[in-house]
Amino acid sequence: MENTTGSLIRKLRLEAKLTQKQLAGMLMVSDKAVSKWENDKGIPDIVILSRLSDVLHTDMQMLLNGKMNENESENGNMKKMNFYVCPDCGNIITSTSEAGVMCCGKKLAPLEMKKAADDEKLTAEYESGEWYITTDHPMTKEHYISFVAYLNDCTSAIYKQYPEWQINLHLPFPQTGRLVWYCTKCGLFYQDIRRK
Q1: Among 24, 100, 112, 162, whose Cα sits 20 to 30 Å from the Cα of 180?
Q2: Predicted local confidence at residue 2, as pLDDT
Q3: Any idea what DSSP says for residue 154?
Q4: 86-124 b/e (C-beta count within 10 Å ≥ 16 → b)
Q5: Contact 3, 67 (CB under 8 A)
């Protein structure tokens, strides 16, 4: 089937187990309007499109494009997670695929993740079934690690950090995974950890 707004509306409506009449009732339009959209004889106006994207759990841009983004990272590998940090409020947002992310009125781009050099790595020791994470990284108000995350193929956990705290984390996770951390001056880094 061709990728169109109408075909995507129909696909998402059926996945939500809604009839055209039920969807129309939720949007306060006629079922004939829904039928027109699905047959590509019209598209919802912008106000209805916004409500429609909420009801169908998608975003307006995907509806207008007529297709969902196919992304390898949606196959459950949390190690491919994208991280976003708001420069105004410090909010941390994640996604496992391409996303339109906004915070404090600004569109955010995913941070570029860099592999840590040996002298940048966190110290990770495996003791009694958990990882013990420490670092000598500066933790001043102007330069600090604002979060540390643990990722593996099916798990993610984020540990928020604050200026003037020392990083002493105990992570009760399996023997292998990935540490990701964000330095307010240097950016986003990762290192893979494996029990020896």
Answers
A1: 100
A2: 61
A3: S
A4: beeeeeeebbbeeeebebeeeebebeebeebeeeebbeb
A5: yes
- Maximum Cα–Cα distance across the chain: 65
- pTM higher than 0.70 for the full model? no
Sheet holding 168-171, edge to edge: 123-127, 130-134, 168-171
Q: Which residues lie below 8 Å from residue 117, measured CB to CB, with a gap of 6+?
A: none
Rounded CA-CA distance 71/85 in Å is 22
Distance, in Å, from the CA atom of 146 to the CA atom of 1, rounded to the nearest integer, reads 46
Q: Which of 149, 154, 148, 123 is nearest to 136 (CA)?
A: 123
* CA distance linking residue 45 with residue 27, whole number of Å: 12
Give residue-wise pLDDT tens across range 124-146.
999 888 999 999 999 999 999 99
The one-character DSSP state at 137 is -
Q: What is the pLDDT of residues 155-183, one digit of tens each?
A: 889 999 999 989 999 998 877 889 999 99
